[in-house]
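WARN  no MSA supplied for this record, continuing single-sequence
INFO  ligand: heme C
INFO  echoing inputs
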Amino acid sequence: MGGAWLIAAWAATVMAAQQPIAFPHNTHMQLGLQCIDCHIGADDRAAAGIPSVRKCMLCHAKLAREKPEVKKVIEYANKDIEIPWVRVYGFSPDAHVKFRHAPHYRAGISCSTCHGDLTKATVAERTVTHNMGTCLTCHRQEQASEDCAACHF
Ligand code: HEC
Ligand code: HEC
Ligand code: HEC
Ligand code: HEC
Ligand code: HEC
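INFO  complex generated
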């Protein structure tokens, strides 16, 4: 029973990480931003990346400063500390997976295929499961690599 509870608690943390700031994706997408304006590696690098607090301050030095969650952003920036975002997606280091965004972007696969529709989301949640089975199912369909060394180091 203790075990079942632990698994349930772990699953809940994975689904909706408790973030230091309630960053709303939907509000920011409505301003006309693109995903890669903030996740600047998602088109041409391995990692998509999480924006630095300095990026947030390009707007929040002036905009929406009275909002309580934005005040927290300003506090981090004033102390010159990065916001300690909790990771939503990722693999255990023992699985030795090397995922790369760039080839998927080049192949025209949309962000939402692998991350769900964040234009309607608030804080990012893990809505899509990624494991070897889900990677390989698509790779077979798309005739992409099934070579162990493509995905593992
Ligand atoms: C204004 C900047 C901004 C824009 C625009 C933005 N994001 Fe984010 N994104 C963030 C921040 C900050 C986080 C970390 C907080 C969180 O996880 O909710 C994040 C987290 C994520 C995560 C979870 C990362 C992880 O594994 O921890 C994904 C996936 C993601 N964004 C995808 C997208 C997609 C897809 C779009 C376009 C529809 C998008 N983002 C647009 C700032 C942005
Ligand atoms: C392009 C300008 C721009 C950038 C870049 C930007 N924001 Fe915002 N953000 C806004 C505006 C404008 C609002 C107010 C939107 C509204 O009230 O509808 C806002 C609102 C917010 C809110 C308050 C939401 C609420 O209603 O309580 C938070 C939190 C926030 N931003 C965090 C961030 C973080 C963290 C970053 C950096 C990863 C970031 N923003 C980058 C323009 C921006
Ligand atoms: C083929 C599936 C796939 C596509 C398409 C995809 N991602 Fe990802 N994304 C992943 C996986 C898997 C991870 C976890 C990678 C890891 O930890 O090594 C991830 C991680 C992330 C992260 C966390 C930070 C990081 O660099 O690891 C962000 C942010 C993100 N993706 C944003 C995006 C955006 C924006 C797009 C569209 C331009 C996108 N992703 C397209 C599968 C995908
Ligand atoms: C929705 C379909 C889809 C999913 C899901 C997907 N991929 Fe891919 N992947 C592709 C396509 C298409 C390519 C590009 C093939 C090409 O350029 O010939 C690719 C390319 C790659 C490459 C580059 C291969 C090379 O030979 O350079 C790697 C590495 C990779 N994927 C890893 C992964 C991993 C790891 C996952 C699971 C976390 C994953 N992919 C999930 C469709 C997908
Ligand atoms: C298209 C990408 C892809 C290919 C090709 C691939 N794997 Fe994987 N593999 C993954 C991902 C992603 C995981 C991590 C799954 C998870 O964390 O749930 C994984 C997990 C594993 C694990 C489990 C590791 C652990 O700690 O649980 C083993 C073992 C493994 N792969 C071996 C192989 C072998 C052997 C091959 C070649 C026959 C191969 N993989 C080909 C993506 C791939």
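Residues 15-20+86-153 form one domain.
INFO  checksum written, moving to next record
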